[in-house]
């Protein structure tokens, strides 16, 4: 079943980076930051990729100053690591950090789902959640329309996050989505299959929010994020990078 193309954003206050419009071209540091960030998150610069400030400046047609400032910001974000006299390297993805990210996401999103159910959504928001709930194209999460479907999924998450009516909580939940996007993309490249029960979990969540049942919504989101964590960790641990790694004795 195909998802409608229209995008409901009327009352969304906090948006994940994936859904934001590019900055104006005259904002050079913001432009360099966004282009670099998206290239890292979308795995066009995979973990471990080395590059220099000069090479990025040439690629983007910018001077070194905005690129240097963008790289400093990406370092604070934890996406790149400076190398002495060797430029930068795209930060690695570790199972420990992925576990922490998934746990934080579950805590934040479970609470936003509960509060959104308590406060209720507008008719337009509720309708849009129902539209976005069904995403079973070709029985897999990958495919030719992956980017469009991925954006729809983040729109789904954004409506729920912003519906909680707590600005700090909504911002934190959206920030968690930003942090985990690269990990989710990596997991889906490793295993793009559609897990059984995924759509049922989404329907249960939307039904609870629309029915304004906070406890049921919290439990439904907790189940959904727990399933996502199992899928992500499962894909990463089955990768050759993990299965072929040498096992050392603990010190």
UniProtKB/TrEMBL annotation:
Database matches in InterPro entries: GntR_C (IPR011711), TF_FadR/GntR_C (IPR008920), Tscrpt_reg_HTH_GntR (IPR000524), WH-like_DNA-bd_sf (IPR036388), WH_DNA-bd_sf (IPR036390)
Q: Which GO terms describe its molecular function?
A: DNA binding; DNA-binding transcription factor activity
A Pfam family annotated for this UniProt entry: FCD
Please state every residue range assigned to the domain named HTH gntR-type. Answer: 26-93
Keywords for the protein's UniProt record, in alphabetical order? DNA-binding, Transcription, Transcription regulation
Could you tell me what this protein is called?
Putative HTH-type transcriptional regulator YdfH
């Amino acid at each position: 079943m195909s998802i409608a193309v229209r995008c409901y954003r009327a009352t969304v206050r906090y948006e994940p980076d994936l859904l934001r419009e590019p900055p104006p071209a005259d904002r050079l540091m913001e432009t360099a930051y966004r282009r670099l960030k998206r290239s890292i998150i979308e795995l066009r610069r995979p973990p471990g990729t080395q590059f220099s400030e000069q090479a990025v400046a040439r690629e983007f047609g910018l001077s070194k100053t905005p690129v240097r400032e963008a790289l400093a910001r990406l370092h604070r974000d934890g996406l790149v690591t400076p190398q002495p006299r060797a430029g930068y390297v795209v930060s690695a993805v570790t199972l420990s950090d992925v576990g922490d990210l998934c746990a934080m996401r579950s805590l934040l999103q479970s609470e936003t789902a509960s509060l959104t159910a308590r406060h209720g959504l507008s008719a337009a928001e509720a309708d849009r959640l129902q539209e976005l709930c069904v995403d079973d194209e070709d029985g897999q999460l990958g495919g030719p329309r992956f980017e469009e479907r991925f954006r729809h999924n983040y729109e789904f998450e954004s409506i729920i996050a912003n519906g909680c009516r707590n600005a700090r909580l909504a911002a934190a939940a959206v920030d968690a989505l930003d942090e985990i996007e690269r990990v989710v993309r990596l997991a889906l490249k490793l295993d793009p299959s559609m897990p059984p029960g995924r759509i049922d979990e989404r329907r249960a969540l939307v039904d609870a929010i629309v029915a304004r049942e906070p406890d049921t919504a919290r439990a439904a989101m907790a189940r959904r994020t727990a399933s996502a964590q199992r899928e992500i960790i499962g894909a990463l641990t089955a990768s050759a990078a993990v299965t072929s790694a040498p096992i050392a004795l603990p010190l």
